[in-house]
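Sharing a chain and its predicted structure for anyone who wants a worked example. Both blocks are below, sequence first, tokens second.
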Amino acid sequence: MTWSDLDPKRKAIAAAAAALVLVASAGLVLRDRSGHPKYLTSLVRRGSLTAAVEATGTINPLTTVPVGSSVSGTVRYIFADFNSRVRAGQVLAQLDPDLFEAQVVTARGNLKNLEAAVGVARAVIQAGQANVAKLEADLAYARANGRRVADLTAQGLVPLDQKDLSQSSQAQAEAAVRAAEAQVNQARAQLEQSQAQVEAMRGQLQQAETNLRYTTILSSTDGIVVARNITVGQSVAASLQAPNLFTIAQDLKRMQVYAKTDESDTGFIRVGAEATFQVDALPGEIFHGRVSAVRLNAYTVQNVVTYDTVVDFENPQEKLLPGETAYITIPTGQAENTIKIPNAALSFTPPLPSDDLQKVYRNRKIPPAAYTSHTGGQQVVWKLIDGRTLEPVAIKAGISDYTFTQLLEGPVQEGEALVTGSLTASQTAAGRAPVPNRPPAKK
């Protein structure tokens, strides 16, 4: 995390701490009148050091449930307001049900009409089946009569046209049977069609009854209403998507902080790490939580890639409220009994021309990474020899707490003075001493 990423409160604290360190541990200021630069130094100390990621975030409920409406209508009654504690199934609001009640009545009437049509189709089938039975009996008689006429014709007892007449009567009876059977099949098809229409109308009736029930807005969970987005008389339109009428926080005793962390800090944050935070509403209290996730949905704000780090915490007394700004500290490293280098010493560079500075680095065999890329934590600090001569020293730095940095390797001992800043004789005469991260005073 860079200095510009810190919130103003933490910038002020860090700047004050750095200024206090410089004033308390200043070892030497050269005060000659020759115009040579004068140097501020700070003593190297030994002690414990804790590295941490600083971030700001927003407090949110663990689970937030939006309550919407699946139907459109006018709000007639509202039974819950902001901060209302509700139970699952509790009535929150009521839309005007008149239109939906009319749709239910219409669907029920249409259903009864179709059910009556089904009854008529069944009666038609029964009549058709009776007609088929009668015609089959007539056909049986015609066939028997045809056989008798054929026998008598063979014996020469009846004329030939009588035989032709009996055969014609038999064919007519067979055709009548087939026609009656076709009418029965048609009636059965009409019955099946009417039954299908009845099922469809039952579905429409069920939909109308469901829409009528949806005019009563119920809570889907236990919790506290944190948002109410409707008023009595307001029209609710649910044509494309369900509008959000209420927002319910399930439990304010267990909450989360969504901390916005820089991409350079996410590599040091571990799930399960303990975190502390403060809020403006309760400045004297420190709250504790635990990192539960670093969300992968990165987003860019002013060319800075940012991630949401989720910190879970308990809120048994419900002191903390949704939406409050939290100032998060997530420890990422701890070092005990270590040499601590003032951070101002790591950022100091003598006021020399670039070529002269490169020559000094080469003569002292300073690795290029120590003053360019700082790969692997390599840094350069400057010692003040005999009160005037500067000597660069290559070191390997470890974790940092924004004021001091851990020394891992390098010829720096406890109690030695490192240069943290410089000023010219004119600046000293004007009464201005350099304070890190603070702009010069305006005249």
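Comments welcome. Residues 98-155 form the longest helix (58 residues).
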